[in-house]
Write a structure and sequence with these properties.
The chain is of the alpha+beta class. Helices cover 42% and strands 10% of the residues. The protein folds into three domains: 161 residues, no CATH class; 130 residues, no CATH class; 149 residues, Nucleotidyltransferase, domain 5 (2-Layer Sandwich). The structure holds zinc ion. The site of zinc ion has 8 residues, from loops. Keywords: Nucleotidyltransferase, RNA-directed DNA polymerase, Transferase.
Length: 502
């Protein structure tokens, strides 16, 4: 099986090979590989390549380059969506929009945001515009998402196959009432996104994490009595059942229920909006409790989960700030490096960068100071994902943009994410596929500044950027601050790190 998958992978990536061109001309013609239906006489090897598609689809995703060879509707190309695809093929409604570069602004390498938000659900639209279009002319690039560097390996394929046999994947959502789902307004956007993610099986429960991370124990954090799949954690777990039953929904979960079937049932009910909002808040509450148990080793109580959900439910007209504790991104602690912040040389500025993440979103932040430790400006940006390396790379991107804003001709960009820094310094040659485009963008912006140096620092010396990122993710702030108005969340650090005048 892995051999056939490897062959299929080569078919998809070696498009200049003769054998690929022959097969394409013979069978595929102008059809899309992912949706092509074989008919009549086809060779056995071609048949097996086509049959391996279903497995291959779990790991393949395009990285947008010039956008000319990616079919918006049929190809996998959105890395932050589980399955990487647009949920509904609406080509019929948009006959002239087929290729990803049809979503670009004319002659520019930027997304046509108006068009995208008109065409797609807000969630999908946001995830599309989060994709970075490379600054240089580059071909679209198909990558295998299950290895860090994006190349197919038989071993990663075996792991994928093995994990699928063991997992309880959600059933296909063919008749799910998506239109009604998107129309629901009376729930916080954060919870709405969360529900969308659990419908796509896209939250980091142990069952999902253990497919990719060795050593993650696949056990439910609430009941310790079952594999922690999304369906278990939120529906079939004894704790979840207690919460759902104790709530005003009074729900008795049936063994045949799945997450999509329960949510679809709520939405289709005549009291759909209320039921959905209440249920969504309950799921969210269970998920947050689980995270507290996992990450803070705290206890949980069914009553508290119901109470928190009801509070959230009754607050739904304004964005929730329900005391979420943003956890910072893990980054390796090196023993080398300074333990406190040090100012840059004269005539040079230093920009510290860092990221912080809350379960579903993250912030990237950058803080600039001069050789006297005086504040020159800072910036932060919210991301709709929490993959550490993406957030760390984005923090550097914010840093380099800050350097441009300040008009700096010499700057040091300093952060505690060693891998990203090593790549920019040229000490690490393999760039993970997830950050390939943003790294090329960082390099291209950096090339417009006379002197830029990237440097690693111990996280203890990166306090200002860290505090700003943490504050920004807690309050969903994307903003720039100028030299005369530093945000209050970092003013103490700026003061204490300022070198004392002699
Ligand atoms: Zn459980």
């Amino acid at each position: 099986m892995a051999l056939v998958a490897k062959l299929a992978w080569r078919f998809l990536t070696e498009k200049d090979s003769i054998w690929v061109q022959i097969l394409k001309a013979k069978y595929l013609k102008d059809e899309n590989f992912w949706t092509y239906q074989p008919n009549g006489n086809v060779s056995a090897s071609w048949k097996s390549i086509v049959e391996s598609r279903i497995h291959l689809a779990k790991g393949c995703c395009w990285i947008v380059g010039n956008g000319k060879s990616i079919n918006i509707w049929k190809d996998p190309w959105i890395p932050s969506i589980l399955g990487f695809k647009i949920s509904e093929d609406m080509q019929a409604d948009h006959p002239n929009i087929t290729w990803v570069n049809d979503l670009f602004n004319n002659y520019e390498k930027t997304w046509n945001k108006n068009l995208i938000f008109n065409m797609f659900s807000p969630f999908e639209a946001q995830r599309i515009i989060d994709i970075i279009i490379p600054a240089e002319e580059e071909e679209d690039n198909l990558i295998w998402t299950l290895t860090p560097h994006g190349n197919f390996t038989p071993k990663s394929f075996h792991l994928l196959m093995h994990s699928q046999q063991a997992s309880h994947s959600a059933p296909i959502l063919d008749d799910f009432p998506w239109k009604k789902f998107w129309k629901i307004k009376d729930v916080s956007p954060r919870v709405h996104t969360f529900i969308w993610r659990i419908l796509h099986n896209g939250i980091g429960v142990n069952d999902n994490s253990s497919k990719f991370v060795e050593g993650v124990i696949n056990e439910c954090a609430h009941c310790h009595n079952g594999e922690e799949s999304v369906a278990h954690l939120l529906l079939h777990c004894s704790v979840a059942q207690a919460v759902l039953f104790a709530s005003p929904l009074n729900l008795r979960v049936r063994t045949t229920d799945s997450i999509p079937s329960v949510i679809a049932r709520w939405i289709k009910d005549h009291d759909g909006e209320r039921k959905f909002c209440l249920g969504a808040c309950l799921f969210w509450s269970i998920w947050k409790s689980r995270n507290k148990v996992v990450f803070e080793k705290s206890d949980f109580a069914v009553d508290n989960m119901v109470e928190a959900a009801m509070k959230n439910f009754h607050n739904f007209f304004r964005p929730t700030r329900d005391g979420e504790d943003p956890s910072t991104l893990p980054s390796p602690n090196r023993t080398l490096g300074l333990i406190c912040w040090s100012p840059p040389p004269t005539n040079c500025i230093k920009i510290n960068v860092d990221g912080a993440t809350c379960h579903l979103s993250s912030a990237a932040a950058a803080v600039a100071r001069d050789s006297e430790g005086s504040f020159l400006g800072c910036g932060s940006d919210i991301l709709n994902q929490s993959i550490p390396i993406v957030v760390e790379a984005h923090a550097i991107f914010i840093g380099i943009q800050l350097a441009l804003k300040i008009n700096s001709s010499a700057c040091i960009i300093e952060g505690d994410a060693s891998m990203v820094i090593d790549i920019l310094k040229g000490e690490e040659v393999n760039t993970p596929w997830r950050i390939k485009n943003i790294m090329s963008k960082i390099k291209s912006v950096a090339s417009t500044i006379p002197t830029v140096e990237f440097s690693y620092v111990n996280r203890k010396a990166n306090g200002a950027a860290h505090a700003l990122a943490k504050h920004s993710v807690s309050f969903s702030i994307s903003d720039w601050w100028s030299a005369d108005a530093p945000p209050s969340c970092i003013s103490n650090i700026l003061y204490s790190e300022k070198p004392q005048a002699v």
